[in-house]
UniProtKB/TrEMBL annotation:
InterPro entries: NAD(P)-bd_dom_sf. It comes from Mycena citricolor. This is NAD(P)-binding domain-containing protein.
Length: 224
């Protein structure tokens, strides 16, 4: 399998790369980032190809060539709810919605394998039904992220051979750090998942496909 990972220098993507480096079913990884990526220690020679982009809504010819023949993509780029107010709505839409759309268009035009599996990493609070009336300062963020999930499904429906879906994890922490978070999470009803389990599950999904869509926090734990 040839796998594309976007946002490759991020917290989640770094763990994805670590696991992909030693996964026998994944033979090639294309990392997409705005700055250089550190290749996991011990990775087989030639398994990783690095593509540096100006931003995730801008792709060079080099990037397009690197995407050719890819079997799957895990898209980790997007503005998370805690950062939404600081970034601002217009910029959050560009980073989350516009960049995802352009990324999917670029991959589709590059000539990926058929079928091609696209996994969008969303979040537990994202709301797809845009008519939902939400209250609170995070309401626009929840709806915006849910609308990206809608975009991903609509794009796949319009492109033969494209299969797509979203995963909706809760709070993600390294396994060793979870115990200190759990009391607060349980008190507030926040779902949590270990980084290692979340990433293992996402790799399983792009290799074997979505058994259901979307996959929520407990679904990811079950897959992992």
């Amino acid at each position: 399998m040839k796998l594309i990972v976007t946002g490759a220098t991020g917290f989640v993507a770094t763990e994805l790369l670590r696991l992909a480096a030693k996964h026998a079913a994944i033979t090639s990884v294309v990392t997409v980032s705005r700055s250089p990526v550190t290749i996991p220690e011990g990775a087989p020679a030639g398994k990783f190809t690095s593509v540096i982009v100006p931003d995730y809504d801008q792709y060079t010819e080099e990037a397009k060539r690197a995407f050719a023949g890819a079997d799957a993509c895990i898209w980790t780029v997007g503005v998370k709810t805690p950062n939404y107010a600081k970034v601002g709505h217009e910029e959050a839409v560009r980073i989350s919605h516009t960049a995802t759309r352009i990324g999917m268009q670029t991959i589709a035009a590059a000539g990926p394998a058929t079928p091609f599996q696209f996994l969008y990493m969303s979040g537990a609070t994202a709301v797809r039904d845009q008519s939902t009336k939400l209250e609170g300062p995070s309401s626009r963020s929840h709806l915006m992220r849910g609308d990206v999930e809608n975009l991903v499904l609509a794009f796949a429906a319009e492109h033969a051979g494209f299969k797509a879906g979203s995963v909706k994890p809760g709070l993600i922490k390294k396994r060793a750090e979870l115990p200190e978070l759990l009391p607060t999470a349980e008190k507030n009803g926040w779902p949590t998942i270990a980084l290692e389990d979340c990433c293992s599950a996402m790799l399983d999904v792009v290799i074997n496909g979505f058994e259901k869509e979307p996959l929520y926090n407990d679904d990811l734990k079950a897959v992992a």
